[in-house]
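lol forgot to send this yesterday, sorry. struct tokens for the thing we talked abt
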């Protein structure tokens, strides 16, 4: 894949969430990152997205490192662990707050669901915006007395204050970019900081990509829609826009994408059955060495 000769040296990242074991979908993503880094003489960083302290465990992180090492992945620089950088996210949130773009939301999950005005691109209930209209004195009083709050982006105001047309360059798995128009309104008043989280995925990933100087975001198509929110936040915070390369997902024989919740076979499980890293690479379309060990085990997975 060629890059503009004038561009800075590419920086890529693989950003797993240590809330379970890696599966073939993660392997594909990591290998796509590695391939682009190799082809462009870029740097590949590892970021551990461990903000959800109830679901993320050090043991999962250790297992992820083992899996990546087994697959032959090599990372540059030191590992960034999101749980160690809450102040970066708080700083960004404060900047948005100073412009009146975020507000505390005291609604419980059940209240949000009951009053939902539709679904966001992830299928979660779309928030009706009740707390957006709370009088400032009430917000202050509730925060002062310690009521738990999530912080939401006032999407209407944010879109009104942002550039008129926000686009990103989408490369998919190819070399020719296509300009995609961001459509952040579909997310409604998205959460930027959860009740018990230093930052939501959207805020953390946007800030980290900027702080780590990421030029190329290589990740699964399941995160394509989220890019609209990331581009909006970049625009509001004056952050550079990386190139985006959303790749195909690994699906099982039934056409469903692999996931931790579906109990998809983990890389560690495949390894225990005798599958080699070369088998995994070959099955996912990357050059592998040696004869297949248990190719049959992997033939029921496809890219889609
Ligand atoms: N941590 C996310 C995941 O494991 C990936 C985030 C990203 O690549 O933007 O799905």
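and heres what i got for the seq, position by position
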């Amino acid at each position: 894949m060629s890059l503009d000769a004038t561009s800075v040296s590419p920086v890529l990242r693989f950003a797993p969430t240590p809330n379970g074991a890696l599966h073939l979908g993660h392997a594909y993503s990591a290998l796509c990152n590695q391939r682009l880094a190799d082809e462009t003489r870029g740097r590949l960083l590892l970021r551990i997205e461990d903000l959800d302290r109830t679901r993320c465990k050090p043991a999962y992180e250790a297992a992820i490192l083992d899996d990546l090492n087994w697959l032959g992945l090599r990372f540059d620089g030191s590992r960034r662990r999101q749980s160690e950088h809450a102040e970066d996210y708080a700083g960004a949130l404060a900047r948005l707050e100073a412009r009146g773009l975020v507000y505390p939301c005291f609604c419980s999950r059940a209240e949000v669901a009951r009053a939902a005005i539709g679904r966001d691109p992830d299928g979660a209930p779309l928030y009706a915006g009740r707390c957006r209209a709370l009088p400032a004195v009430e917000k202050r009083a509730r925060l002062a007395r310690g009521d738990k709050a999530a912080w939401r982006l006032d999407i209407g105001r944010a879109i009104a204050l942002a550039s008129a047309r926000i686009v990103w360059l989408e490369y998919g798995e190819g070399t020719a970019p296509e300009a995609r128009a961001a459509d952040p309104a579909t997310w409604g008043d998205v959460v930027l900081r959860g009740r018990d989280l230093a930052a939501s995925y959207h805020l953390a990933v946007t800030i980290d990509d900027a702080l780590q100087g990421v030029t190329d975001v290589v990740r699964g198509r399941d995160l394509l829609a989220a890019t609209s929110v990331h581009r909006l936040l970049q625009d509001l915070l004056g952050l550079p826009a990386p190139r985006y390369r959303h790749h195909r997902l690994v699906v099982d024989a039934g056409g469903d994408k692999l996931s931790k919740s579906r109990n998809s076979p983990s890389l560690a499980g495949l390894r225990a059955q005798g599958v080699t890293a070369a088998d995994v690479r070959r099955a996912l379309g990357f050059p592998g060495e040696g004869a297949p060990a248990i190719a049959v085990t992997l033939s029921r997975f496809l890219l889609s």
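Residues 1-6 have pLDDT under 50 and may be disordered. anyway ping me if u want another try
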